[in-house]
Design brief:
The protein has 424 residues and is an alpha/beta fold. Helices cover 38% and strands 16% of the residues. Strand 5, helix 9 and strand 6 form a beta-alpha-beta unit. The protein starts with a helix and ends with a helix. The relative contact order is 0.15.
């Protein structure tokens, strides 16, 4: 992962970092673009100052980063500058993508050649599901709490190709038990294992490094749906040892919608066929019958990409680096612990998110006995102005709260008041 010294050096030279450092990205740009946000207050380390970076409405408390992490002013400004530049120049500025690949790889412990930009985690998951050479009867294992963006690509292949999907129910108490449950499903037909790094319904954090080791020992492809982890917790893809990983920019990274990245370990690149192909997929071609793939993961960037959105994603990444990934993770985990303590006081409230310290971070899901989660969601929003998420998957019937950089301890009192009125 990018260490502090490397990051500060990069911050001093990156054109996106210039936005974060109150400078324009090119000569003359200030005459036609909005002025950048003043980030000097961040140096005080105040969560209040961080909250001011987000235009997110204050008419309600936002607890739904797991669904959509609204973008910050610096991200919006960087995107506007780049979009205006593209419109002014009449150029797509795809040369910027390689630099953003280097930023992304440095932060997430990968090689730039192992990173491709996709529209979201679903698209990255689909690249893997559609690209691996699977045959009828081959088996894929994933958890029953998988998001539709993680499960549907495999269910589609099951419907169309005849592979077999096998699922396990995640254990919220013991990380070793989850590994045991996965291993118990492995057969001589198992070709792929996928888990959500952190599950969307209840925020279960899997020991992905242990699962990766088990897969390597058995020659099984290991893919991670990382929609809920990138931006919530720091990690290194190389250290995890997975074969592939996909995430969205529009959740915990607070990047633009329709942004994200796909990682494929360099040694496994040739095992993932291109389900889509375009100008950037080829390293060399001669019509009509000579075609070779580009020797990098961005062969899966099959057409024109919006450099403004990708630059916005880089700005979001650099902003999180400035705040501090460990600090962000610690902030969310602290608020979850405080909320757990508060909710635990009310009779009939059941907390579903694991209490084990290595199995959760910034998500807390709960239900109230005798109450429908859809009705609870409505009342929390309309009566108490709390934007949560209704968890309906697998009939879990729960409410999910996501704590992120724009949340603070001040949000605990309204939550306690709301739950008190609903649970009594």
């Amino acid at each position: 992962m990018m260490n502090r010294k490397t990051f500060l050096k990069y911050l001093a030279t990156s054109s996106t970092a210039m936005v974060l450092g109150h400078r324009t990205t090119r000569a003359g740009a200030s005459a036609t673009t909005i002025p950048p946000t003043d980030l000097s207050k961040l140096d005080t380390g105040s969560w209040t100052a961080i909250r001011e970076l987000y235009p997110l409405t204050r008419k309600r408390i936002y607890f739904n980063t797991g669904g959509l992490g609204p973008t910050s002013k610096p991200v919006l400004e960087a995107m506007q500058r780049q979009a205006l530049r593209q419109a002014t120049d009449g150029e797509h500025h795809h040369s910027l993508l390689q630099r953003v690949r280097e930023t992304t790889a440095g932060i997430f412990g990968a090689n730039p050649d192992e990173i491709a930009f996709v529209r979201n985690a679903t698209e990255g998951n689909s690249v893997i599901a559609c690209g691996l050479d699977l045959k009828a009867g081959d088996e894929v294992i994933f958890e029953s709490h998988a998001h539709p963006g993680g499960s549907f690509p495999w269910l589609a292949r099951q419907k169309e190709l005849g592979i077999k999907v096998r699922i396990f129910e995640p254990d919220p108490h013991n990380p070793d038990e989850n590994l045991r449950r996965i291993i118990s499903l492995i057969s001589n037909r198992t070709r792929v294992i996928q888990v959500s790094h952190i599950t969307a319904p209840t925020g279960i954090l899997f020991d992905v490094a242990a699962i990766a080791r088990a897969c390597r020992e058995r020659g099984i492809w290991f893919h991670i749906d990382g929609a809920q982890s990138a931006g919530m917790i720091p990690f290194s893809l190389t250290a995890i040892g997975c074969d592939s990983y996909a995430t969205s920019g529009h959740k915990w990274l607070n990047g633009p919608q329709e942004s994200g990245f796909l990682y494929i370990a360099k040694a496994r690149l040739e095992e993932v066929a291109c389900s889509h192909a375009g100008a950037y997929s080829s390293g060399h071609y001669v019509l009509p019958d000579n075609f070779t793939y580009a020797p990098y993961v961005h062969r899966h960037e099959y057409g024109t990409r919006d450099a403004a959105s990708i630059l916005g994603l880089e700005t979001a990444l650099l902003l999180q680096q400035r705040i501090g990934p460990d600090r962000i993770a610690g902030h969310g985990k602290k608020l979850v612990a405080q909320a757990r303590s508060i909710l635990g006081k009310f009779q009939g409230v059941e907390i579903l998110t694991p209490e084990h310290p290595s199995m959760h971070n910034s998500i807390l899901s709960f239900r109230i006995a005798g109450n429908d989660s859809g009705e609870l969601y409505r009342r929390l929003l309309e009566e108490h102005h709390l934007r949560c998420r209704n968890v309906t998957e697998r009939d879990i019937n729960a409410i999910r709260i996501s704590w992120h950089v724009y949340n603070s301890e001040a949000d605990l009192e309204p939550l306690e008041k709301a739950v008190r009125s609903l649970a009594t």
